[in-house]
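Folding Problem: From Residues to Backbone Shape
Fields: amino acid sequence; protein backbone structure tokens
RECORD BEGINS BELOW THIS LINE
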Amino acid sequence: MKRATHIVVRALLGASVFASLAAVGWSQQPSITWLGVLPGGGFSEATGVSADGRVVVGGGSNGAGQIRAFRWENGVLQDLGAFGGDFSFAHSVSADGRVVVGAAWNASGTPRAFRWENGNMQDLGALGGQESWAYGVSADGRIVVGWAWNTNWLARAFRWENGSMQNLGALNGRESKAYSVSADGRVVVGVWTTTALRSRAFRWEDGAMQDLGTLGGQESSALGVSADGSVVVGTADNTAGQARAFRWANGSMQELDTRDRGSSNAYSASGDGSVVVGAAAGPRGVPSAFRWTQATGMEDLNQLYADLLTDGSTLDYAVAISANGRYIVGTGYNAAAQRGEAFLLDTGFPLRGDVDRNGCVDDADLLQVLFAFGERGYRNEDLNWDGIVDDADLLEVLFNFGSGC
């Protein structure tokens, strides 16, 4: 079977395409890239990453002492500007890296939710009040979620699409804020505030807002969601009153942190919800970035990638992970530059084109894409996360065929 598949692969690609593969030059080995700072700035923070790891967004200081949203690509940090004010911050990016969302201050000093594309920053408005903030964006960049003030000066979660901002309500509480959205824009997660001013995680779908509960304590917050909306991650109080990272699925909230002390926060999940990233307090309260899977439990990225941090640099917060689970971004300490700085960690896994995540791009991966060809929906066979399994996904398997085998 494998010999026959190799013949098919060569027939499909041809000698000229195989010859061009050497020019791609993308390493499959783990690496850490420090993204730098804006000109004259002193720090940067990364909050979002595209599906292929080529684009990272976040915020950082510049030489004028302003905090500005940035978009990083090909080693360059681009200042996205503001609405006439001094500050802006980017919180998320679409799967292809084209659309960036966040908040930017206007000339009156009021933060406004923005959607940035092709150099144009669009003010998304509010819900009758003044302030608004955007935190999450769908894979195709069309749907944006966040929170905005209503006419009563109360924060309400919103879902924005085609120029219209929808108020998602607040269950029977006072306020709500949305922090993430599923790849197709159907499911929104965030926090709602009870009349007793307790924060509680919510999951919204088809007009209904669901309270996700806690780990036995009083409060919780939902901060990230899987591509299909079935897995939610965040932070919740346990029975000991500790704030701990959680993963919610099938109506059950799982505590990810098995340590005896310290707090932890889960910020983001891979597309299939199997990999979770966040930060956990160390013995002296210093945060450390983590990655969690069901098989490994919570692992300190500083220990996992110690050979890449030999100069004394640290990875403090893992804030976002790419849909395939390979790329992790966040904030750490760059010892060489002696500053807090945004980082991009390429874990090297899964290999490009490794649909079944077994470390080998082979017949099985090719067949999975072929059998799913033409299907819509964000899934592991949709390797570029554009919502359809098509030629581009097939070519990614073919280009990397044999890697890791």
In short: The chain is about 10% helix and 45% strand. Helices lie at 2-20, 301-304, 363-372, 391-399. The longest helix spans residues 2-20.
